Task: inverse folding
């Protein structure tokens, strides 16, 4: 059924090569976008929790703006609107970036900054979930607020949010498909092109779907590995923590109500 | 370093902590009301009193983990006001041990002890490691140096917390109910460590309900109720014949 993918195209390639080029753009966009999102997200997330009200308000503003505008609209803003509102020469220079890059960079910035807002909220939640005693102990040792964040708070908060970051990783690469609307020939765009050239709609989008699924599984598995690698020795994931308690309950005698004892 | 806010202790050079007319409110609730306390160098003070009496709040004010609303606190000649530099220099000289240990779970035992000496005191990694191992040996837990806090028992964690505070070479140690979160069989190992520390001449202010410890170690017992110091005195006379009705009632309740 996927045989058509190996047929020659008009430009001498095979259709599968189109798909693979598209996959390349998708991966590049997701990978580099992720690092932008992660770096900005951690900084903004920390900003949400600091004492300084101005910084906290600024971070809040960032999150509300980038999280609440649809990705598609943001994509158009970066691609169509930004060059228009920038001063003439700078705007023209942006418009003249050659084809793949002229779409790639706006898409990269868009996805990076959008996902950053979501990551920032995870980071904030992670920081706020830590016991207050951690900050107090760090303060009592004379660590400045900066050192406290750097060595005590952030390392713990990031470990805490690895599972929820998994969905952000999967989110950013799925959102790469929106970049086709500003002309980036990524995976979905290539699938559509194949479908138009061959009229094999099912095959073209079926192949793209399978590739997206495999990517999702890889992303999920790698995040699981990271979660395991950074886990603090001696700490147990929430699921395991419950089981010993259950085991206690089924021990003989333990099931008796308090105050009752087995008469021998 | 200490030009601003430097105040000479009010009574002699031997006072290391001077608390005068201290006020602290949480919203409408007055946690501390006109508290005066002077701690001399080398002195061991036990703070006791019913829960909510303000004893924890008092020692948390001494290293400015709680901000006070009125009165003065002078620690080692530096008055605690809002200047961050003053606050941090005081915190370096004041070690604190918490009820819930508050070890850093993502760092190994020895790293817990090395962090502040390296980042605040500027020690090299090797110096900090050597100092940490020395103090972990002192609290008899050097065999567990590379484990993580979650792999230790409560008593062991609290001894690590004591070693971590000592690594900053503080001039005074504050203990905020250090044995209250421990299983009964682990209380002794922590108290033994504290007795040993007291024997070495460390200045200590302890909030604790361990009256045996107070009898053995304290120079002075300070009894607080409803945010004020109600009574203070030598442990022998305080336990034998408390002067106030409230102290008598409290002692009756905790000594069965």
Result:
């Amino acid at each position: 059924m996927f045989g058509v993918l190996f047929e020659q195209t008009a430009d001498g390639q095979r259709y599968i090569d189109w798909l693979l080029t598209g996959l390349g753009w998708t991966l590049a966009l997701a990978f580099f976008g992720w690092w932008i999102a992660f770096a900005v997200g951690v900084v903004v997330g920390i900003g949400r929790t600091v004492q300084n009200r101005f910084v906290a308000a600024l971070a809040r503003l960032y999150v509300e703006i980038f999280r609440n505008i649809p990705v598609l609209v943001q994509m158009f803003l970066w691609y169509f609107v930004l060059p228009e509102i920038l001063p003439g020469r700078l705007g023209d220079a942006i418009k003249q970036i050659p084809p793949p890059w002229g779409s790639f960079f706006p898409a990269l910035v868009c996805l990076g900054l959008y996902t950053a807002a979501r990551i920032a909220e995870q980071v904030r939640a992670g920081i706020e979930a830590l016991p207050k005693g951690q900050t107090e102990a760090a303060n009592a040792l004379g660590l400045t607020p900066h050192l406290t964040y750097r060595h005590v708070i952030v390392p713990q908060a990031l470990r805490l949010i690895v599972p929820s970051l998994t969905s952000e990783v999967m989110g950013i690469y799925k959102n790469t498909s929106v970049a086709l609307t500003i002309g980036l020939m990524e995976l979905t765009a290539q699938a559509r092109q194949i479908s138009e050239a061959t009229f094999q709609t099912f095959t073209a989008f079926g192949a793209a779907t399978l590739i997206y699924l495999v990517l999702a599984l890889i992303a999920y598995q790698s995040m699981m590995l990271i979660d395991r690698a950074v886990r603090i020795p001696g700490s147990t994931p929430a699921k395991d923590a419950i089981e010993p308690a259950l085991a206690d309950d089924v021990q003989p005698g333990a099931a008796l109500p308090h105050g009752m004892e087995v008469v021998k | 370093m200490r030009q601003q806010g430097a105040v000479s202790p009010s009574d002699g050079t031997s006072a290391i902590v001077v608390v005068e007319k201290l006020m602290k409110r949480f919203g409408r609730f007055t946690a501390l009301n006109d508290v005066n306390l002077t701690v001399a160098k080398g002195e061991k003070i036990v703070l006791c009193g019913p829960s909510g009496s303000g004893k924890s709040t008092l020692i948390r004010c001494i290293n400015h983990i709680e901000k006070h609303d009125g009165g003065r606190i002078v620690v080692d000649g530096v008055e605690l006001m809002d200047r961050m530099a003053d606050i941090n220099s005081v915190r370096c000289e004041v070690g604190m041990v918490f009820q819930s240990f508050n070890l850093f779970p993502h760092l190994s035992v020895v790293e817990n002890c090395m962090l502040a000496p390296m980042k605040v005191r500027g020690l090299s990694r090797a110096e900090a490691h050597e100092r940490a191992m020395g103090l972990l040996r002192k609290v008899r837990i050097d065999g567990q140096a590379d484990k993580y806090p979650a792999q230790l028992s409560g008593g062991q964690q609290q001894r690590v917390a004591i070693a971590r505070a000592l690594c900053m070479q503080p001039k005074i140690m504050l203990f905020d109910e250090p044995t209250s979160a421990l299983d009964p069989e682990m209380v002794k190992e922590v108290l033994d460590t504290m007795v040993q520390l007291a024997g070495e001449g460390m200045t200590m202010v302890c909030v604790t309900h361990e009256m045996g410890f107070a009898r053995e170690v304290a120079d002075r017992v300070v009894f607080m109720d409803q945010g004020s110091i109600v009574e203070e005195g030598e442990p022998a006379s305080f336990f034998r014949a408390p002067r106030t009705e409230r102290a008598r009632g409290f002692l009756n309740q905790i000594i069965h």
Notes: Chain A has one domain: 3-263.
